[in-house]
Design goal:
Length: 303
């Protein structure tokens, strides 16, 4: 690293990475080659410069950079290698230009997807939900969620309503519902999310909701935690029973105990994201008892 810091990398990179000339692929590649072959720079400094140049491209639009430049960076052969931290016999690039190039392209893809999603959210929320489901690309789906974070609340509510109708049969919409409830804090939508949602994004949304509901709508916060019903508990048990208590079941058990002792009002608010790492002192075999208690309570309230 000392060798890489021994020269003025930033200045050289800024000269090559001028936005007005990056679209000229041949000229840019010539500049990159000249920089790589500088005899007055140590090899680590040259590769550090190429890495920095690649990283800086993320701030530019895709069409500002020639295709052949990205092809060159995606296939860059690093020569400065270091020992892998976990596998001492393996070596990895000190400046991973290939990885940086892939990251730049992923960012462009995500930004383009967000732009397209923004138009759909404003003009046709149903089409936005359909487009999200049709895409199997992680970057594109992330772009859709980014767009929801920047949309008007009214448009987000429209997307939320459409996605909720499909959530039970289409669990892939978990992340979409999660993004919307984090914005609208709608009690019905949150309840549906907790009962039906599953898969990627669930835990992250729980953490965000936990922070919001404690400060914005504490009455909803407590209502949702204390009123999870039996079908939801059974579903989560069947899905996660082999991996310990699921997040919601952990929270239900703790708050059930508080309710049983009639001290739940004074009980400290256990954050749901902390329940992710909570390891109960009692074994998971208490679940059947808790479920039976919840079922008995449900029957009692129904009579």
């Amino acid at each position: 690293m000392a060798a890489a810091q021994s020269v003025d990398i930033e200045r050289a990179v800024s000269e090559i990475g001028d936005i007005s000339s990056l679209s000229d692929g041949a000229a840019t590649l010539t500049k990159l080659t000249d920089m790589e072959n500088r005899s007055d720079w140590p090899l680590p400094a040259r590769e550090a410069a190429v890495y920095q140049f690649t990283h800086n491209l993320a701030t530019l639009p895709r069409d500002a950079v020639a295709i052949e430049v990205m092809q060159y960076l995606r296939n860059y052969q690093a020569r400065v290698l270091v020992r892998h931290e976990d596998h001492g016999t393996a070596s990895v690039p000190l400046f991973n230009v290939r990885s940086a190039a892939a990251g730049v392209e992923h960012g462009w893809q995500r930004a383009e997807s967000a732009s397209n999603a923004t138009m759909l959210i404003e003009s046709n929320p149903a089409a936005m939900v359909s487009a999200y489901l049709e895409s199997a690309n992680h970057n594109q789906r992330s772009g859709f969620l980014d767009a929801l974070g920047q949309a008007d609340v009214a448009n987000v509510q429209a997307v939320q309503s459409i996605a909720l109708e499909q959530l039970e049969s289409t669990p892939e919409l978990t992340a979409v519902i999660g993004a919307t409830v984090s914005i609208t804090a709608d009690s019905f939508a949150i309840h549906q999310f907790l009962v039906r949602a599953q898969g990627a994004g669930f835990s992250a949304v729980l953490e965000q909701l936990d922070k919001q509901l404690q400060t914005q709508k504490p009455q909803i916060f407590w209502h949702l935690r204390l009123n999870m019903h039996l079908p939801a508990m059974q579903r989560w048990l069947s899905q996660h029973g082999g991996h310990g208590l699921a997040t919601i079941l952990q929270a239900v058990i703790l708050y059930w105990d508080c309710w049983q002792t009639r001290h739940w009002v004074q009980a400290p608010r256990l954050r749901l994201h902390k329940a992710l790492t909570f390891r109960p002192s009692r074994p998971c075999r208490i679940l059947p008892r808790v479920i039976q208690q919840q079922q008995d309570a449900h029957k009692w309230h129904s009579t």
